[in-house]
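Objective 1b: paired records.
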Amino acid sequence: IYDPSEGFGGKGDLYLNWIESTLIPLIQKDFRVNLVRESLGILGSSLGGLISCYAGWTRAKVYGKVGCMSSSFWWDDNDFQNNVIVKNPIDTSNSLPVFYMDSGTRGGDESCAVYTTQVYDYYQTVGFTANQNVFKYIDQGGSHNEASWGARFYIPMQDLYPPNTV
């Protein structure tokens, strides 16, 4: 989504097309992996968290596991929650993807935690079930940085890939 207040963005679909048409086939060619939807995940933090949430929502046939860490849901005046998810119903022809979302609360991150909670709550109104296919973690005192994301990275891995399922 292009954000006029930031002066960039808007090429997320191009990026996701490249992942799906170039990167995934390259990985499958060079490594012994079985990248099927049920186990194929996408995860990022900040704007990477936003594009991951976008990918899981708009390409639910591709991604079965979605990690949205400290997602920049504020981007383009909250376009993801105000437009993307409410105007584009998620594809339910397969089982719903499993989503994990989180945020810290330190510094300016309080609003990030509020937006994360709003998105998490909305998902439950359209068929997701808390702690089954949508998970939320608010890191009290956590910051919007790599140190905080790294310290809690084990949480989305446990939620998205529980033992004995991989």
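Objective 1b, second protein:
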Amino acid sequence: GSESPVKQYALASILIVLGALVAVNFVSSRVERESVISRLETEALGPAKVSTFKIVEEISQITDPSSGMLLTLPDDTSVIDRIVLNALVGQQVARVDILDAYGEIVYSTDPFYIGDDSEFADGPNSAWSNYVGSAAVSGLDGHTALIEAVITRVPVFTEGSVPGASSLETTVVMYRDVSAAIDAATSAGARFRFWMVI
């Protein structure tokens, strides 16, 4: 009560400026995170398409497909595990599902899901990727981890045919772990904004 109006005004001004800086920091971090996620979704498509081609190409050499569909896979899933791991070298993919033409999971790096109908069975005739947020994924090592995932869905159609329901042979779904990439990008931005505020 004994402080001068000038001091009170100065204190109020400082608090207003700090409040504004915190608000700008919050909005900036949200925008930056969305931008990073959008970039990661786009960047996931290229490697997913290449890996899908490698996986389908190698599996088709060891199966007896009928009309091109993956109807018979080897009983020894370690053979497919090896093919999948080779196709994903250097990528942060936590789980891979291979669907038949009807949307049933005929192979997964998490055997628990084999035989289930995939929620990603239906979709466009082209590859897409989508950030789904936190997901509990069990990988080839048998460990379950909570990751921030980008799902890529790559449909494979009979060669030379018009992409559509009648020519769909298989779909490969990949759960890509983007946790580290998001953390690295957003923490760098957060440090920059922190020093700007200081």
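DSSP finds three helices and five strands in the chain. The chain has a mean pLDDT of 82.
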